TrEMBL record:
Residues 198-436 form the Tail specific protease domain. Pfam families: Peptidase_S41, Tricorn_C1. SUPFAM superfamilies: ClpP/crotonase. This is S41 family peptidase. Gene3D superfamilies: 2-enoyl-CoA Hydratase, Chain A, domain 1, 3.30.750.44. Coiled coil: none annotated.
Length: 480
């Protein structure tokens, strides 16, 4: 009997030890409160639901509460740190014991003009990455505009002040969205010059250029990508955006307007992170098809002159199809209040189906944002030559924020650098073969249109000429 008791106690003890080991070896759940390094966000994670708070010195407000996939994917976590993958970015978080008291205070000041001004100024002061490059003293900006705001400042007056402050930065990645009524009131008080060329006009022009040089031009997604052969041996690929590239099985002959509406109807029903992957899958599918369909191509022209950006991951995957060696491409780092967070490294990883010959990359001042990321990363590849004018110079991803009054705005909080540590923000990347394209959009498109009337396109002609010269330099194959 005694032995049975001892045996039972021993069994219970072993079970207890085993349970304790399971508990101690169990990975802690990522649920809880986390502070993001470098982006001014605090998140509350509860299973698949995430609550995102914008935090600054004066304010903490709930920006949105959504499924985690509308923010990113949990990549890795420990007791104290969390990594969320957002596209090809890894966002780092540290655990907090609880929400700061600032996030729990009442919303009495939400519609107070002075409070909203202070939050706006603070957010830029803590996160905007390019004051030095722009030559802007943000403290002096405060001294000029803060006295103009009081408790009786109207929404229109406050929005006008914000627009003036944004204009000082001259940054295509800084913008604000307000209710339509306020926007209309603002537009009515200023004289805006209308563009000569609409987006549709621009698309018609780049189609005419492609059709002039390419026999049997093929289009994907209403012309987001156009491709074919020039002179039977030069592949031509015109990529007009780094988004709207997913394959949503839409009709092949849709015009741009109908395609746009039907595309976003499907895209907006996808979680943000899933839709981002749709874009990457789409560009991979079409580029695999292009390389397979053009086996005679001895070189390629990649035309990004009309590409205003989109997704960084799409840009890098395009480059992967024209690279034959894994290597570091560029780094980026996020602004924190006193300096910058540790940089992230981004690599070129050649696609399984890739082209390793000469590539001529066409650029203009309209080549901006994510399309500039491709240009930046191409500097690491010796098989690339860039032709055209300097790119726009807006590399940073946009940091999305919301004021206490609900107005949404974006700012640039990151610095991208090439392998030599050079930062091209506000400067743009110069071409190896410079063409004097105008920085004014209408004048640039006029240049291309006039060139086409003369039966040529300067950049494409130069690429063809360089390829001919390259072919002559190549030694003849030795016959056995």
């Amino acid at each position: 009997m005694k032995n049975i008791k001892i045996s039972s106690i021993l069994t219970l003890f072993l079970i207890f030890i085993s349970c304790n080991e399971k508990v101690s070896n169990e990975k802690p759940k990522p649920d809880g409160i986390w502070k993001q390094i470098g982006y001014g966000n605090i998140i509350a994670l509860n299973d698949t639901i995430i609550s995102v708070y914008n935090i600054s010195k004066q304010d903490c407000n709930l920006s949105f509460k959504e499924h985690i996939l509308d923010f990113g994917r949990v990549k890795n976590y420990s007791k104290d740190t969390l990594i969320i993958q957002h596209g090809n970015d890894d966002w780092l978080f540290t655990r907090l014991g609880k929400l700061p008291n600032l996030c729990k205070t009442s919303n009495e000041l939400n519609n107070n003009p002075k409070h909203n001004f202070q939050v706006f100024w603070d957010t830029f002061n803590e996160h905007y990455a390019s004051f030095d490059i722009k030559g802007i003293d943000w403290n002096e900006v405060y001294k000029i505009y803060e006295p103009k705001v009081n408790d009786n400042t109207t929404d229109l007056e406050l929005y006008t002040i914000f627009r003036e402050m944004i204009a000082l930065l001259n940054d295509g990645h800084v913008k604000m969205e307000v209710p339509e009524q306020i926007e209309n009131e603002y537009i009515n008080q200023i004289e805006e010059q209308e563009d000569k060329y609409s987006k549709l006009d621009e698309f018609n022009l780049n189609k005419e250029i492609a059709e002039f040089y390419v026999d049997s031009l093929r289009n994907y997604n209403a012309g987001m990508v156009r491709y074919g052969l020039i002179n039977d041996n030069v592949g031509y690929v015109q990529i007009n955006a780094m988004l709207m590239l997913a394959d949503y099985d839409l009709q092949k002959d849709l015009d741009l307007r109908n395609f746009y509406g039907q595309y976003w109807e499907k895209a907006e029903n996808r979680k943000d992170e899933l839709q981002r992957q749709d874009e990457v899958d789409g560009i991979n599918k079409i580029l695999n098809s292009i390389i397979k369909d053009l086996p005679k191509a001895k070189s390629y022209i990649l035309d990004l002159r009309f590409n205003g950006g989109g997704k960084d991951a799409v840009a890098l995957d395009i480059l992967n199809h024209f690279s034959d060696q894994e290597k570091l491409a560029y780094t980026k780092k996020a602004r924190i209040e006193k300096g910058f967070a540790n940089p992230q490294n981004f690599k070129i990883i050649p696609s399984k189906n890739h082209f390793s010959g000469k590539v001529y990359l066409l650029t203009s001042h309209l080549t901006a944002s994510a399309s500039e990321i491709l240009v930046l990363a191409s500097l690491a590849n010796t098989n690339f030559k860039r032709i055209g004018s300097t790119t726009e110079g807006i590399f940073s991803s946009t940091l999305d924020k919301e004021l206490p009054n609900g107005w949404e705005y974006e700012l640039s909080n990151e610095v991208y650098q090439d392998l030599k540590g050079r930062n091209y923000e506000n400067i743009g990347i110069s071409a190896d073969y410079q063409i004097e394209y105008s920085k004014d959009k209408d004048e640039f498109l006029d240049q291309l249109s006039n060139d086409l009337k003369g039966k040529k396109d300067s950049a494409i002609e130069l690429a063809i000429q360089l390829e001919k010269e390259q072919s002559v330099k190549q030694p003849l194959p030795i016959k056995n």
